[in-house]
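RECORD TYPE: inverse folding
INPUT: structure tokens
STRUCTURE:
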């Protein structure tokens, strides 16, 4: 079990501001403060980079956060203890030399990762190596939602995906939210669900079967994108459906 000091630390964490404390891949930086992340360089490339609120671990109860995103950013929940160290991939190259060109393409001459997002299949085995008993028996390790402009293959609106980091899972469209308003996510670990909100109203239940530890995260993929996060209040958790 947990000692009183750890429980007290967890209580303080739940009362503190949400911040992105872990930045994964080179092309991401904080904005005015640690509650915002943005592209470090606007070069026209599609180098995905991910930020975690890993200092805010959610393991029980109900947790609500507001996200303000500018374009096609991904926002959601992920297992909090994952690390992404570029040097770790050397062992995968040693085990399977066919991965060498692929792994090398992820890194620059300084050994930094060019990009990272948890939906990329080549990272899954590595991410699963961080599994602990605190993940519980749930296979829902990552969930995200993003805004999509209509294309030949995707409908206009917001799309949702989840990963167990072993096989591809089909995504789905959850409908059209106002892109000019913040999006709220409610992680209810009493019920094991993740729901999406806007303007104080629940829009959809995105996924069930969540248990164990999670933290908030976001992935930036394009130039001039940014994500800001802040904690919601209980008044934001109205169960009125749209």
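DESIGNED SEQUENCE:
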């Amino acid at each position: 079990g947990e000692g009183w000091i750890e429980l007290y630390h967890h209580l303080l964490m739940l009362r503190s501001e949400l911040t992105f404390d872990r930045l994964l891949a080179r092309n991401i930086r904080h904005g005015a403060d640690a509650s915002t992340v943005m592209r470090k360089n606007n070069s026209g490339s599609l180098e995905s980079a991910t930020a975690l609120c890993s200092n805010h671990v959610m393991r029980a109860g109900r947790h609500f956060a507001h996200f303000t995103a500018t374009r096609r950013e991904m926002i959601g929940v992920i297992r909090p203890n994952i690390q992404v160290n570029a040097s770790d991939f050397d062992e995968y190259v040693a085990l399977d030399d066919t991965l060498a060109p692929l792994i090398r393409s992820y890194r620059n001459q300084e050994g930094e990762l060019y990009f990272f997002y948890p939906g990329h299949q080549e990272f899954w085995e590595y991410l699963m190596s961080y599994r602990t008993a605190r993940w519980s028996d749930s296979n829902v390790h990552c969930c995200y939602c993003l805004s999509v402009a209509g294309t030949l293959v995707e409908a206009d609106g917001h799309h949702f995906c989840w990963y167990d980091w072993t096989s591809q899972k089909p995504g789905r469209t959850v409908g059209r939210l106002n892109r000019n308003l913040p999006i709220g996510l409610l992680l209810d670990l009493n019920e094991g669900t993740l729901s999406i909100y806007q303007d104080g109203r629940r829009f959809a239940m995105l996924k069930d079967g969540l248990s164990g530890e999670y933290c908030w995260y976001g992935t930036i993929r394009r130039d001039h994108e940014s994500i800001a996060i802040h904690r919601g209040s209980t008044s934001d958790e109205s169960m009125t459906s749209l």
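NOTES: Helices lie at 4-15, 89-95, 100-104, 124-128.
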